[in-house]
């Protein structure tokens, strides 16, 4: 059975990770805007985006001093990527990136 969550208060978050290329131009930003509008029209309540390339995350592992301000969303909270343990960093890097 499908649970009707549209009336759920703070119950469902839409977490997405996009590459920087997915929002790099007017066409891409327009598609992203359409995605957000559609989510809201479908009564979505919470959207949480991370826009970063895996290459940047890998570079942050190699040269953390150059990426001290890189913030990622993980496990329901935001954290500085370089302060996370390697296992968590690898998990974030391994997650799927989406392009629209």
UniProtKB/TrEMBL annotation:
Domain Glycine radical: 1-100
Keyword terms: Organic radical
InterPro entries named in the record: Gly_radical, GRE
Pfam families associated with the record: Gly_radical (PF01228)
GO molecular function: catalytic activity
Assigned GO CC terms: cytosol
SUPFAM superfamilies reported for this sequence: PFL-like glycyl radical enzymes (SSF51998)
Tagged with keyword Nucleotide-binding: no
Identification of the protein by name: Glycine radical domain-containing protein
Top-level taxonomy: unclassified sequences, metagenomes, ecological metagenomes
């Amino acid at each position: 059975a499908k649970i009707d969550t549209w009336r759920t208060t703070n119950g469902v978050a839409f977490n997405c990770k996009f590459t920087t290329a997915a929002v790099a131009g007017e066409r891409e930003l327009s598609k992203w805007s359409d995605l957000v509008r559609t989510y809201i029209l479908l009564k979505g309540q919470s959207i949480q985006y991370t826009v970063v390339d895996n290459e940047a995350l890998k570079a942050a592992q190699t040269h953390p001093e150059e990426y001290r301000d890189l913030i990622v969303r993980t496990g329901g909270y935001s954290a500085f990527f370089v302060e996370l343990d390697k296992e968590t960093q690898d998990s974030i890097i391994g997650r799927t990136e989406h392009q629209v």
